[in-house]
Design goal:
Anaerobic Ribonucleotide-triphosphate Reductase Large Chain; 10-stranded mixed β-sheet; about 750 residues; alpha+beta; 4-stranded antiparallel β-sheet
């Protein structure tokens, strides 16, 4: 298979074997030969088939399989869930086990719901409980100390049910972006709770220790708090636990209470799942899908993933036992956006939604058909009796497949795997195959890579580039223009039909994101990893509607992200900056700026604060104060210069405000009913007032002097981009995680 430059970077950094000196001693062929040979377990026929499957670019397993197959570690699973019971012994035993999983390269999910609330009595010590939030912080700190697979920190999911007495604290526990950085958090909700939200009813908070009702809350108020926090920074997500358990294949083993870190894999305690994804972009043929080729790849992929289970060396004996008793696999997809590009079907169309359902029905059906055949050859998963297959409880709405016959056959013959389908994130493996990630739309059609001597290389999506070439529209100038935002929706030279087909994540309304997720979920055993992208201007009400729509359409969970809402999102597309080796330099000051001057009363006298803007937002601050001189004047100039530097580096205005507001000195002063505690506090309040103006909020505290009547663009309103800590390239927020399209770094 021909590999792209970016694919080689990713493979050399994270997948290819290295010697003791750190030198790469493996190439693509060597890696997939190692993997194929290991998973085939001595069968030369299988080894040849698996090698060809991997080399075709039509399928890849999850990263731990590619990294660890044939190694001393031999830990091939990505997703684990561990139990936490209400005892000190269980809490720290699970913490130890989580560290072992992180060390081996896996991610962990936990339900903290069984832990008694803070200040609940502890009989054994005559003391009181610390509560789940405090132990969540302990788990986060421990994760900091263990490098995942020896390369990065482990990823975790924390879930707390909406009826836990500390749910309000949990919802807000990541309000500070510097807290709990190793955890994604989600609120587990029931159907009864969602009905209470719709009906504006109260609901009970129940102590997990005593089983007693602690207090009652308005369901709508709690829901609004979840939405408000998600609007602020993307968390918490919501997990619809009743929907998950309605599809639990082995209900006799208990309820599913948690998921893996990205939320697409609900699991019982001590379960793991082996994942892999089919590259849909490879199956476009003459304006349609090559269904025969797809069928053969599905069947072989199921064989591969089932064999992975037997080859894996799990970090705990409890995991080994339950994994082999249920034999869950998760076959998913990537390249969905690229497939739509080739078929010239808009992501936001009924045609795309219908195709998604038909395609996923085909994959799910054929995967179960092959799993049933494997059961006849090798035996069904041991927990098959009383499973949803044995009781004929699995529900599927037929489109083109005869589900009644298949499920009847499975009841008779058994099935090898308790689950067969999952839509997982495919950040790095999709980069290896140079295809779009999961079922996500592209984040950007064109991106810029910085190379030596300040040179910038422009890369375009290959299907978009081919279409431009075919129409005679391509030029370096046009690609450079597209790279400023990643989107073509506002470029006049681009035909309208192109704009319909080549849509990006922020071009697509949240409703269509959710509808696409729901379409794939309909024929997926487990869950779907998907980010519901919102523009910076999205309101709290927009987030609320999205959460409700996801529930109504049958999604098992939802993750949202409002562009530019996180503290560490420090760059905006279109802003002229120098990014080199992970360092950011401020953009140049233009010759002409425009802004507002505010007069404030401080303990040191009249202060005038001028805040100027350029085309990208606030860019500089000037401060003048009467005839004051000496240190006071120098300090004000220092505040102004550093604030200007931060603004031109696109540090969020809110961050500067928080640093300055509240600083106190011996000479506070009241001004129009507002206490100004110092000159630094005055500057912070002036910046906050500037922000309120552009958020169209009423301002009464200051005297305003407008230097121009020009419109000032809201800071942060442009599509935002992160900086990769490894290579300094721009990073995308997709599938619930930060991912670099150049080197493959991901936060998760």
């Amino acid at each position: 298979m021909e590999l792209s430059e970016n694919a080689l970077i990713v493979l050399e950094r994270r997948y290819f074997r290295k010697n003791e000196a750190g030198q790469t001693i493996e190439d693509w062929e060597g890696m997939i030969n190692r993997v194929a040979s290991n998973i085939a377990q001595g069968s030369k026929d299988k080894e040849k088939l698996y090698f060809e499957l991997l080399d075709s670019g039509m399928f890849l397993p999850n990263s731990p399989t590619l990294m660890n197959a044939g190694s001393d570690l031999q830990q091939l699973s990505a997703c684990f869930v561990l139990p936490i019971e209400d005892s000190m012994e269980s809490i720290f035993e699970t913490l130890k086990n989580a560290a072992l999983i992180h060390k081996s390269g896996g991610g962990t999910g936990f339900s903290f719901n069984h832990l008694r609330e803070a200040n609940a009595p502890v009989r054994s010590t005559n003391g009181v409980s610390s509560g789940p939030i405090s132990f969540l912080k302990v788990y986060n700190a421990a994760t900091d100390a263990v490098k995942q697979g020896g390369t990065r920190r482990g990823a975790n999911m924390a879930i707390l049910n909406v009826d836990h007495p500390q749910i309000l604290e949990f919802i807000q526990c990541k309000a500070d972006p510097k807290e709990l950085t190793n955890f994604n958090i989600s609120v587990g909700v029931s159907e009864a709770y969602m009905q209470a939200v719709l009906n504006d009813n109260d609901y009970d908070l129940i102590s997990p220790h005593s089983g007693k009702v602690i207090r009652r809350l308005k369901a709508r108020d709690v829901f609004n708090l979840i939405v408000e926090m998600a609007h602020r920074n993307g968390e918490p997500g919501i997990i619809f636990l009743d929907k998950i358990n309605a599809a639990n294949p082995t209900p006799k083993l208990g309820r599913i209470e948690s998921t893996n870190p990205c939320g697409e894999q609900p699991l019982l305690p001590y379960e793991a799942c082996n994942l892999g994804s089919i590259n849909l972009a490879k199956f476009a043929k003459d304006g349609s899908i090559d269904w025969d080729k797809l069928q053969s790849v599905i069947r072989l992929s199921v064989d591969f993933l089932d064999d992975v289970i037997d080859c894996s060396r799990f970090p705990l004996p409890q995991i080994d036992a339950l994994v082999k008793a249920n034999r869950k696999i998760g076959l998913g997809v990537m390249g969905w956006a690229d497939l739509l590009f080739q078929l010239e079907i808009p992501y936001t169309s009924e045609e795309a939604i219908s195709l998604a359902k038909e395609l996923m029905e085909f994959i799910d059906f054929e995967a179960k058909q092959r799993s049933m055949e494997l059961a006849k050859e090798k035996g069904s998963f041991p927990n098959f009796p009383d499973s949803i297959y044995d009781t004929l409880s699995l529900k599927r709405e037929p489109i083109k497949k005869d589900w009644d016959k298949l499920l009847s056959d499975i009841k008779q013959n058994g099935i090898r795997n308790a689950t067969v389908t999952t839509i997982a994130p495919t950040g790095t493996i999709s980069m290896i195959l140079d295809t779009s990630s999961g079922i996500e739309p592209l984040f950007s059609l064109v991106y810029v890579k910085n190379v030596m001597d300040g040179e910038k290389l422009i890369y375009a999506n290959k299907y978009f580039q081919t279409a431009l070439e075919r129409e005679g529209l391509i030029s370096p100038e046009l690609l450079s223009q597209v790279s400023q935002t990643g989107s073509i929706k506002d470029i006049k030279e681009i035909p309208e039909r192109f704009k319909q087909i080549y849509q990006t994540a922020l071009d697509i309304t949240p409703e269509w994101h959710i509808r696409m997720q729901a379409a794939f979920q309909k024929y997926t055993d487990n869950a779907v990893s998907k980010t519901i992208n919102f523009p910076h201007s999205a309101t709290i009400e927009d987030i609320s509607k999205a959460y409700q729509l996801a529930w109504e359409l049958g999604c098992k969970g939802i993750t949202v992200y409002r562009d530019g809402s996180r503290e560490d999102q420090v760059l905006s597309s279109g802003i002229k900056m120098t990014v080199s080796e992970g360092k950011v330099a401020p953009r140049s000051r233009p010759d002409v700026t425009y802004g507002l001057t505010q007069r404030l009363e401080t303990g040191c006298g009249h202060m005038y604060v001028t805040i100027n803007s350029d085309e990208f937002g606030a860019c500089e601050v000037f401060i003048q104060m009467g005839k004051v001189g000496g240190c006071a004047s120098a300090q004000l100039e220092a505040i102004a210069r550093l604030s200007s530097l931060a603004l031109r580096s696109n540090v969020k205005l809110e961050s500067i405000i928080r640093q300055l507001k509240g600083i106190r000195c011996p000479s506070p002063m009241w001004h129009n009913g507002t206490l100004i505690t110092s000159c630094g506090d005055a500057v912070g309040q002036a910046l906050e007032n500037f922000l309120k103006i552009h958020n169209n909020l009423q301002v009464e505290s200051f005297h305003m002097e407008t230097e121009t009547d020009s419109h000032i663009e809201e800071p942060g309103a442009k599509s935002a981009i992160y900086v990769c800590p490894d290579c300094g390239s721009t990073v995308q927020h997709l599938e619930g995680c930060l991912k670099c399209p150049v080197c493959g770094w991901s936060k998760c």
